[in-house]
Specification:
The complex is a heterodimer of chains A (464) and B (592). By secondary structure, chain A is an alpha/beta fold. Chain A has helices at residues 133-138, 157-167, 188-200, 224-239, 250-263, 277-285, 314-322, 331-335, 352-355, 365-389, 396-413, 423-435, 448-454, and strands spanning 5-6, 9-13, 16-20, 29-34, 40-49, 52-57, 69-76, 78-81, 89-91, 107-110, 115-116, 121-122, 127-129, 141-142, 149-151, 169-170, 177-186, 207-213, 242-248, 290-291, 297-305, 325-329, 342-349. In chain A, helix 10 (365-389) crosses helix 11. The radius of gyration of chain B is 27 Å and the shape is globular. The chains are: A alpha/beta (464), B alpha+beta (592). The structure holds adenosine-5'-diphosphate (ADP) and magnesium ion (MG). Residues 241, 243-249, 432-433, 510-513 of chain B line the site of adenosine-5'-diphosphate.
Chain lengths: 464, 592
Amino acid sequence: MSGKEYRTITDVKGPLVFLNKTEPVSYNEIVQLRLSDGSIKNGQVLDTSDDQVIVQVFEGTASVDRQTGVKFLGDVFKLPVSKGLIGRILDGAGRPRDGGPEIVADDMADIIGAAINPYSRQSPESFIQTGISAIDACTSLVRGQKLPIFSASGLPHNDIALQIARQAKLVGSDDDFVVVFCAMGITAEEYNFFVHDLERTGALENAALFVNLADDPAVERLITPRLALTAAEYLAFEHDYHVLVIYTDMTNYCESLRQIGAAREEVPGRRGYPGYMYTDLAMLYERAGLVKGKKGSITQFPILTMPGDDITHPIPDLSGYITEGQIVISRELHQKGIYPPINVLPSLSRLMNAGIGPGKTREDHKSVSDQLYAAYAQGKELRGLVAIVGEDALNERDLQLLKFADIFEDRFLRQSRDEDRSIDEGTLDLAWNLLSNIDTKYLVRLDQKWIDKYHPGEKKGEEE
Amino acid sequence: MEIDSKIMEVKKMSTENGVIYRISGPVVTATGIAPRMYEVVRVGNEGLMGEVIELHGEQSVIQVYEETSGIEPGEPVIRTGQTLSVQLGPGLLTQIYDGIQRPLPKLEETMGVFITRGVDADGLDLTKEWEFVPTVKVGDELSAGHVIGTVQETETIEHRVMVPPGKEGVVKTIESGSFNITQTVCKLEDGSEIAMMQEWPVRHPRPFVQKYAPDVPLMTGQRILDFLFPLAKGGTAGIPGPFGSGKTVTQQQLAKWSDAQIVVYIGCGERGNEMTEVLDEFPHLIDPNTNKPLMNRTVMIANTSNMPVAAREASVYTGVTIAEYFRDMGYNVALMADSTSRWAEAMREISSRLEEMPGEEGYPAYLSSRLAEFYERAGRVETLSGEDGSVSVIGAVSPPGGDISEPVSQGTLRIVKVFWGLDAGLARQRHFPAINWLSSYSLYPQALDQWYRDNIASDFPEVRTEISTLLQIESELQEIVQLVGSDALPIDQQLTLEVARMIREFFLQQNAFHDVDTYSDLKLQYDMAKAILNFQEEGKKAIAGGAQLEDVVNVPARTDLMRGRFEEGYDGRIEGLVAEMSKQIAASMEEN
Ligand SMILES: Nc1ncnc2c1ncn2[C@@H]1O[C@H](COP(=O)(O)OP(=O)(O)O)[C@@H](O)[C@H]1O
Ligand SMILES: [Mg+2]
């Protein structure tokens, strides 16, 4: 069956090709199109019946005509996988882009990926120290988590992602991460920034890159993250690697998804995005975690840029509903000159509770984190009030909180791009130091026993 | 009853074979068969399970419960004659299922850690033997729902084996001893046989005699829920909220601490790790009502976001049918569905593949009636055997962008009697549970007040009203504070603000992850509320007597009272702490 080439295209619409009079073609089967100039395009079956087959063409349908030959390859999309993926740069469809040889496959893996049985998962609970105080203290990352960066154009999300990739480590363990990097429609400049940094730190040799740039086919982007995750799963669950998957920019991925939906004239969900976008994104994001009986893990760092800085836009919204928290980058902080401009208030790590505390980070971590949030949130809110009524109308408590908000941004959030703070002295002790600017009686989130032990002014036995 | 005989009739029909005509995602169209609506069919060479959801001329449209990649037109489609049903009997408890009642541990055994396809698994272990203790004797006249015997299913739960709906008659033989669930344990005079297992089509509510108005609270140990916005046993509640606001944590808190006898927890289109968390945690958590692990009373359905959407659509029905089955034994059952929005989205996805005329935001026009039908399966009932049983349903709703004007939220709010509105702003301040006390409501207090007076305190409803009034006043005062600052308010109003702050920080906030704070029984909740009113009372007196507000607010004993709730044995100490606070506040007046 795979030998036959059909010239029965009836319609071409956007990235879709419709043909009829084929022999049975299977759902999701891969397709090759041969154009009259001999060039080849690739695609995948989206809908199949006795009468009609709909194919989405990854490279777009430019120059496709009724004479274009269509060949069904009799299989679903598979990626050749082997340990040889490490150190390689592939294009958005999985072909070498680094001039190197084809990947010698140990196995061919279906890129759609099967769902992990929820019963077979293992709870992620190993704290990853990123060396960034805002993340380590307030939205702690654990191995096997999927924690996206919600950013917007012009903000330093790439620097943050790279700083995490450079500094991420398990305290007290020398297990290293392998990075799988997946670019979807980013500019060559952004891509070079990533590659140079990975090169500079030697991480490139320990990374597999899947690259679809802004001028590469848009529909191919629907495949690229699936390739990257398939590689990640293979490395994690067949070869025990701890894999850190960074993919950027999810927004471009979603745009491609919308394009397909529109071409199929589907009834759109919110703001023109397909109604199944939640499920589609889940099939990427849920490919993170740990499973019973396997040593490796997949930790995901998807980066997305929020259109119009709007966190309620369907792309960040649906992502936030699936991922295990989010790190939100703030334009306001960025404009104040603070790096990393992480707004901790809307940021969240859902797996934090499992990863912190005695034996993992420190016994007072949860308490400190809650107190930082509460104090900063109240201080920030008071800024609005002060703008109207002035500082005179504030009572003592409010004044202290107001001041704390500034200190927090300036001394806790702010750090340099190569500053790698340890969780205890670097981050938590710093937090205590800053919190001691507020009277203890207003620090209602702190357990008394931690105040006695860690508060610089109240430590028991250190008075006088 | 009528339903059951229909199933039997369909079952007897011979199977016919058809072929696949079209495949579009989870929706497959077949020709050459004439199945009934909602009949289960086997699709393709691998025999994937599917359900007929539309008949269209020669074509039967099928939603397939497994991945359809690689399937092609021309592959066979085979009728089974059955409708989508669950197996009901001993072995449900502690189990974790996918949306169509396949036990996930079984799937792991056969497929490994990734769910591939084409594997069937019975919902219940058909070979395991259970100790059956009869409760009827030869000659007894039985009707549907009558309990014929019991099985100790878990340490805490006695499984009551019932005459399935549709059957009745006089006992001819009754067994006692070890049997598997398909063996006959009872024969009736008319020759019909009863085993411990029965089956029930998930899309049909199980029968009962009548519904009662709920008048007993479902106690959850969550202060803001029990005290301000209570749910009744047999009632319905909706929890809408944006991502990260606390829907799942609230649902899990209810699964852990509510005083239901059976809990059915449905993870519908949500995260895999959240189900793992429950599986890890529940066997180690002790039910405060039975002192035994919580897992003993729990059934889980996990059809996560990346599992097939058709099975996600079915998961809600699978769960509620299991809940009704335990209700029929006379138990109080609590069912949590996290999230009903994902269920609605599964309907939308399938509906759009069917090219149905869409309603609002692309959802099918029947969305609100499906929601209503689902919540209607909640209720406190007189069971067929005359017992009192209930199913309480708590549905999480995930409105896009947190905006509840969307169809799923609106459809839900029209039906449910309790609205726990989660608030992104509160979550950002880490005020948890982030339930907005101004917009949330419960329509049950009136029906429950007598119970509170009889069982907790005669002035319980009045105390609740005082607390909620204070919160109301605070929100009005806050508007003024936003304009002039709090120092500009008269001192009594400043005190009111401090009292309200105490309500929020000491009473409403409750840390689900703190070993002690995670649960407060209703009596303690009442005591804590009284402590706050006591602070208000004493504070007023002291200020009238010339004390400074700062001094009143900052008496050390008040901090002790507030921080004390994190320590074991608080219920025993609270009275003393309140007395000490009163003393210190009174003293603050004398200082001046
Ligand atoms: N009652 C609570 N106590 C402490 N933390 C909570 C509570 N409710 C929610 N949280 C915090 O909020 C986070 C998000 O809650 P979750 O229930 O997962 O949100 P949702 O299901 O609405 O997306 C949790 O990971 C936890 O950190
Ligand atoms: Mg949730």
